[in-house]
Amino acid sequence: MSAQPLPSNDNDVPITTIAPREEKPTSAKKLPPPEKPSDVRRRSHVILSFWLIVLLLGLPIWWKTTTIYRADLPLEDMLEWADGKACRPVFPLRISIQATSLQDQEAQNLLRLTQHALDDLNDFAGHHLRLQLGDEKQDPADNGSALTIRLTPGEGTTATLDPYEPILDITYPLNTTPSPTASSSALATYIASQLRTTFAEEQATISYLLSTNSMPSEHRPLGLSPETAESLAKRTTRSLKYAPTYHLTFSLFTSGPLPSSWDIETAIEEYMKPVLDVLSPIHNFTIDTQVQLYASPGVQNQVLNKEDLSSFINAAEWPLSPSIGGAPTINFIVFVGNQTIASPSPDVAPTSHSWLIPQWGTVYLLSLPGDTSHVAAATLKQPLLTFTSHLLSLTGTPESGSLPLRLSTLARIRSADLLLRASSTLGSLARLAMALPSISIPSSVADGVTKTMSHLRLACDNLGGTEGLAHARIAEAEAERAFFEKSMVGQLYFPDEHKIAVYLPLLGPVAVPLVMGLINEIKAWRKRRREKAEKGAEKKEQ
């Protein structure tokens, strides 16, 4: 910068001016040195190696360790069983006719006419009575027949059902014997009507079971009357679900210190054991007893109305276990106190001393002198007989007919019930497997399904006999075990939202750097290619 003199002013004082500073041009922003090709390749190889590890090693390990094993199930066959297409329940019952007073040809003719009359009366092909001639020397219990008819000549036509054996005694006048050329017979019609009446409750019960399950229309019987359907529905609600073993608990509850003991073992052996023995092919029973002093009921009224019966059981204080060893418990309570059940009419003395609680047991009110310290077996006769009758009701035993006939009917009803329940469980399992593709299906479930279908087939082919009941029992147990497999039940409550909540915190911090590094590397590669292409174009122009 230089100072130049200017013309002086009046005072001859020299004035100097300062020239402006010359600006130097500013230099451009300093850029980093270009990457070496070896560094670019090294960075690309590092990113590529990370992704190769993820794709070739990480994903296979993740897939292997998190894949849910699903055993192959015959879903179509399972649904066919559930829809009733794999089995048409048929109960062919053999009825033996012993007609010693008739010639062979006359007996054959009577059997033929009776069979025709039965077929005309039957409206349910699944429950079919097949008549056959029996040998009188053979024991009716050993001929494999559901019922034996003994024909005896007499003055009139009567029918009597034996209370201890499955035998129907029919007397008939000799002039009612059909001729060889007859197309119908009053005796044959009478025998057919008696057979239909004898097995009417069994047929109605099986019809009700089939109608309440998903059976095809061609397999279903004709509709039941509303009254019959309502009665069967009440009996089904009252009875317990089938179990191979029931636990019977006999309890003596007293409102004071006496009585303090009872002869329950002798009473059971004398009055109830015979029925337990005949039920043994269908159910097993375990028994325990107890005595509870100073047991106050849930209702303190001396006269119990119908509304009081439901709250009489003091579940909070009475030691009543719901089940022992996994078997359903049936409770039989003898309560010694001053309570009585009110009569439905004030002019009639109360006659009922007990009531049945559906799917639970029975309570019996026993009145004793105040100084009774021990309850003898003879005193327990009526309570035990009541318990026996109610036990048959709780196990679903039919109400009509002799006891042997009722028990054989119970076996056939239980066979049908178990078969339908096992088939329904198979269908539920198949629908569950199709609705939840991510659910685990272990090999034990597939084995259980195979066993279930095998025993279902055997049960379907042998309905009406003890063999069919045994196979149906196994099928129902295997189906329940397969459906309630522990590893499958746990998967039902593990939705996909839970998986996202587990994976996202783990994979998010790892995936973000990998994805961003890959994106940046792709952008840099595309930029290098674009610059390379531009340089090549400039060289061509030059």
Write the layout of secondary structure elements.
Elements: E1 3-5, E2 16-18, H1 37-66, H2 75-82, E3 91-98, H3 104-121, E4 127-133, E5 147-153, E6 158-161, E7 167-172, H4 186-198, H5 200-211, H6 226-238, E8 245-254, E9 261-262, H7 264-279, E10 284-292, E11 303-304, H8 306-309, E12 323-324, E13 327-336, E14 340-341, E15 354-357, E16 361-366, E17 374-375, H9 381-394, H10 403-435, H11 443-461, H12 466-483, H13 486-491, H14 496-541
Parallel strand pairs: 3-4, 3-5, 5-7, 8-10, 8-13, 9-17, 11-14, 13-16
Antiparallel strand pairs: 1-2, 6-7, 12-13, 15-16
Helix pairs in contact: 1-14, 2-10, 3-4, 5-10, 7-9, 10-11, 10-12, 11-12
Question: Compute the gyration radius: what is it?
Answer: 45 Å
What is the distance, rounded to the nearest whole angstrom, between the alpha carbons of the first and last residues?
Answer: 47 Å
Portion in strands: 15-25%
Question: What is the 3D form?
Answer: elongated
Helix content: 40-55%
Low-confidence stretches: none
Question: What does this entry look like structurally?
Answer:
Among the domains are: 94-212, Chitobiase, domain 2; 240-394. It has helices at residues 37-66, 75-82, 104-121, 186-198, 200-211, 226-238, 264-279, 306-309, 381-394, 403-435, 443-461, 466-483, 486-491, 496-541; strands at residues 3-5, 16-18, 91-98, 127-133, 147-153, 158-161, 167-172, 245-254, 261-262, 284-292, 303-304, 323-324, 327-336, 340-341, 354-357, 361-366, 374-375. It contains 14 helices and 17 strands. 27% of the residues are buried. The longest helix is centred in the C-terminal third of the chain and has 46 residues, at 496-541. The strands form five sheets. Strands 8, 10, 12, 13, 15 and 16 form a six-stranded mixed sheet that branches. The radius of gyration is 45 Å and the shape is elongated. By secondary structure, it is an alpha/beta fold. Strand 12 (323-324) and strand 13 (327-336) form a beta hairpin. The mean pLDDT is 85.
